[in-house]
């Protein structure tokens, strides 16, 4: 039974195999589609075939998903050699860093950079170009530390500020840096200490040290020297703040207060009040009242310094107060009055009267013309409101000073009057192009100069000098008297005015 069933099953399987084979052959012969085996075509390129080879070691590694490697610093691929044409043969581009991941950079100590230069405007006005050239030419008039006096050098600081340079042993140094080392002149130091702080060396002879009380302090105020700036004197050190403190203590009505008012209007608020060492109450307003008692035509340099100080004090007041009252209104009217006096006596070439406010006069001598016109223009630059700087008579005066400084650049000029003239041009540039002037000022502070050689300090001079002046009643010296103080000798007064007013 079982053998009969196996025989029939074998017959049926053989018949099915034969039938399938015959059917496949018939389909191939007739081109009909039918079920085919998935056999790869060896004639096709093998780019689409990925061959995976396994090593014996891989067979023992467990089938675990590997974590991808994310390194902060990507490995730079090895570059192939360059071909003859200079191109990279088969070079692979350097991979870009992942977004948000900054590359490590070693910190570096950088030198403080100077101010970023603002966009330099195109100079459309020819007068601006002339002013810049005149100031630049004046930088070439170099003074020497071992030849010129403190009075002359201090005037240079007034005009050219931080960029003013000197010669010291054939080296070019910054004047402010050298003065800060505490130099001396003819055995006397530039600065002395006092019980109330310190000050510039007082008057000894014409054109040596200060010609007026606190004159150097006013010059440093114009240069923008900060109150914490230090100056060496002997074995001690004083600051601008110490000089201001001493000026407050020593101020009195017997001495000229012009330069004290000038300096205070730059450093102190308009409502400052204090007590002097004589137990006298003082204020900025009182300084203005005392200054207005001085007659300009009887003062040094035609009274231009006193008028400048008054105008500067009024400007200090107007920075905080909108309306002028009392003493401040009177001072403002006085300033405007003398501005019109100067305008009415202006010469055709733009220069001002060589007699200041006494009457019209033209000076053919360039030294006198630069000095008188420069002093007057300096006062006018401080006194005029902003909307009047473009008036033709003002431009003519600026043109005259700038032209004289350029045309006579090879001729020696007296430092005092010349530097006041340069200061008038510097103030004009500061007011007409404030952003550019501010940039030049900051740039000058970062400018590299040779380091000045330290000066030999004179130890103990201050105490000795103060004792000598106390015994000689220093406060009664005529050079320090207020200009409106009566003088019994008119010839002596005229002689003194002739000595000190021309170039100061």
Characterize the overall form: elongated
Structural class: mainly alpha
Q: What is the CATH first-level class name?
A: Mainly Alpha
> Strand fraction band?
5-15%
Provide mean pLDDT, rounded. 79
**Radius of gyration, whole Å:** 44 Å
Total separate domains: 1
- Strand-and-helix sequence, N→C? HHEHEEHEEEEHEEHHEEHHHHHHHHH
Q: Under the CATH scheme, which architecture would be assigned?
A: Alpha/alpha barrel
Termini, distance in Å? 151 Å
- The number of helical segments is 16
CATH topology: Glycosyltransferase
- Main sheet attributes: strand count, strand direction, barrel closure: 3 strands, mixed
User: pLDDT under 50 segments (min length 5)?
Assistant: 31-54, 58-92, 94-111, 476-504
Share of helical residues: 40-55%
Number of DSSP-assigned strands? 11
Strand order of the largest sheet: 1-2-3
Organism: Gimesia maris
Region (Disordered): 78-123, 460-504
Biased composition (Polar residues): 464-488
Protein name: Prenyltransferase and squalene oxidase repeat protein
Question: What does this 3D model show about the protein?
Answer:
The chain is mainly alpha-helical and 504 residues long. It has one domain (126-481): Alpha/alpha barrel (Glycosyltransferase). The chain contains 16 helices and eleven strands. A three-stranded mixed β-sheet has the order 1-2-3. The chain has a two-stranded antiparallel sheet with strand order 4-5. Strand 4 (184-185) and strand 5 form a beta hairpin. Mean pLDDT is 79; it is low at 31-54, 58-92, 94-111 and 476-504.
């Amino acid at each position: 039974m079982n053998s009969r069933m196996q025989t029939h099953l074998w017959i049926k399987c053989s018949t099915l195999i034969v039938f399938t084979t015959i059917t496949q052959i018939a389909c191939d012969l007739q081109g009909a589609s039918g079920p085919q085996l998935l056999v790869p075509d060896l004639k096709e390129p093998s780019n689409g075939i990925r061959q995976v080879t396994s090593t014996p070691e891989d067979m023992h590694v467990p089938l675990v998903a590997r974590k991808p490697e994310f390194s902060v610093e990507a490995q730079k691929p090895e570059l192939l050699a360059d071909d003859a044409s200079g191109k990279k043969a088969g070079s692979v581009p350097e991979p870009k860093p992942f977004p948000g991941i900054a590359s490590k950079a070693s910190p570096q100590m950088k030198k403080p950079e100077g101010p970023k230069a603002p966009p330099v405007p195109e100079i459309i006005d020819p007068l601006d170009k002339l002013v810049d050239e005149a100031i630049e030419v004046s930088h070439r008039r170099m003074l020497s530390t071992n030849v010129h006096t403190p009075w002359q050098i201090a005037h240079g600081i007034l005009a050219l500020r931080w960029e003013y340079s000197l010669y010291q042993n054939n080296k070019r140094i910054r004047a402010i840096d050298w003065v800060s080392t505490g130099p001396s002149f003819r055995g006397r130091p530039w600065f002395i200490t006092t019980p109330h702080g310190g000050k510039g060396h007082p008057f000894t002879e014409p054109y040596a040290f200060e010609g007026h009380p606190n004159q150097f302090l006013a010059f440093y105020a114009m240069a923008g020297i900060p109150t914490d700036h230090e100056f060496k004197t002997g074995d001690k050190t004083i600051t601008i703040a110490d000089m201001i403190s001493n000026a407050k203590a020593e101020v009195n009505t017997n001495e000229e207060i012009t330069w004290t008012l000038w300096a205070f209007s730059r450093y102190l608020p308009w409502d400052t009040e204090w007590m002097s060492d004589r137990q006298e109450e003082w204020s900025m307003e009182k300084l203005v009242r005392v200054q207005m008692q001085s007659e300009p035509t009887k003062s040094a340099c035609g009274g231009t310094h006193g008028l400048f100080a008054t105008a500067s004090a009024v400007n200090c007041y107007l920075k905080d107060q909108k309306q002028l009252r009392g003493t401040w209104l009177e001072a403002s009217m006085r300033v405007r009055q003398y501005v019109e006096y100067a305008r009415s006596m202006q010469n055709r070439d733009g220069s001002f009267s060589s007699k200041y406010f006494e009457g019209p006069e033209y000076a053919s001598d360039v030294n006198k013309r630069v000095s008188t016109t420069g002093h007057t223009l300096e006062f006018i630059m401080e006194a005029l409101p902003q909307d009047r700087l473009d008036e033709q008579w003002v431009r003519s005066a600026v043109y005259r000073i700038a032209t004289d400084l350029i045309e006579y650049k090879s001729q020696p000029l007296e430092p005092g009057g010349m530097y006041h003239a340069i200061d008038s041009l510097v103030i004009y540039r500061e007011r007409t192009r404030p952003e550019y002037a501010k940039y030049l000022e900051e740039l000058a502070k970062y400018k590299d100069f040779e380091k000045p050689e330290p000066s030999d300090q004179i130890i103990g001079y201050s105490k000795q000098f103060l004792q000598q002046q106390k015994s000689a009643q220093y406060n009664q010296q005529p050079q320090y008297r207020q200009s409106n103080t009566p003088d019994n000798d008119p010839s002596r007064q005229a002689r003194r005015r002739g000595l000190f007013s021309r170039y100061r």
